[in-house]
């Protein structure tokens, strides 16, 4: 849960005395080995010791997620829920030039991305502590105004509305749109006819959602981060699904359901490719295959195959193919002197950890075992992994 900050904590941390104290605390190691000694020192030398230590630790955790957070005020929950800076900037780029109202602004991660590209940015929240933190974090941006307001009670007009409903209900993560906070149906009802972008969990059942605009699934460095629901006024014409693949080191890749999706049905090629999770969650596997000259191992399975590995991807060069039986796997691994073993599974009921314990690879050569179904036949592919992202 983390430390429960108060408005008095926030006022102190944002003051000259608080900033000086934070700089001193940041010079402490605060490791498990030194934590008790460091905390005693902070308690002896400063007011609000728990708030100081928590803020320094949160800032250290935040630097890989929020590029602006080195001098921010944060809470543990706010950091966990915050949109990574690269994802927030991607969304902001789609809204450049528009006045925007983030109705669940928390400590301001989205506001920080919007401020440089939008003429006016309004941020509101019902949590007065997080709102005070947002005011501190965005103080240098004259075009940002944080106010206290309920997301379900409109207080702006003529703005694009951004919302990021909390995804936990009764302490558990939920995929039910009606159990989000605020509930998605209530949020949509509060802003009829408005341009709206709603961040939500990528695990939502999009087909059951009945969304009439665009659903964009975004990954960052190979991890699916979110889905964003864009109303029709913000969506690209003819696009209802989009996959956006972001990277800390490479240019973004975008794929939509308006792209070609015709692919051949052929026997497996030389390579197997597991598409980025954003592509799979957005239902754009065939579109991705068509772009890169690939085809599916099986029409119902997301694994792709081809004669060449697309640049900037991780793939698996097929060494051997055989019908999946545990006895056959064990024999093939021994014959190949297999040691380190990665196991990927789609379309067959196999527990990778249990299988690894059962076959007990003890050799020296690393391999990847891809288990899938082709037609009705459980099939194994023994492969070597190649990551062209690092070549």
Describe the structure.
The chain has 391 residues and is α/β, with parallel strands linked by helices. It contains 14 helices and 18 strands. The strands form 3 sheets. The protein has a 9-stranded mixed beta sheet with strand order 3-2-1-4-7-9-8-10-11. It is globular and about 70 Å long. The protein starts with 6 loop residues before the first helix and ends with a strand. The model has no long low-confidence stretch (mean pLDDT 94).
Structural class, by secondary structure, is: alpha/beta
Distance between the termini: 41 Å
- How helical, in percent, are the residues? 25-40%
Q: Which whole number gives the mean pLDDT?
A: 94
Q: What's the main sheet like?
A: 9 strands, mixed
Number of strands: 18
Count of helical stretches: 14
Poorly predicted runs are none
**Based on the structure, what is the oligomeric state of the protein chains?**
single chain
What best-fitting shape do the alpha-carbon axes yield?
globular
Whole-number radius of gyration? 25 Å
Strand content: 25-35%
How do the strands of the widest beta sheet line up side by side? 3-2-1-4-7-9-8-10-11
Quick recap:
The protein is α/β, with parallel strands linked by helices and 391 residues long. Helix content is 30%, strand content 25%.
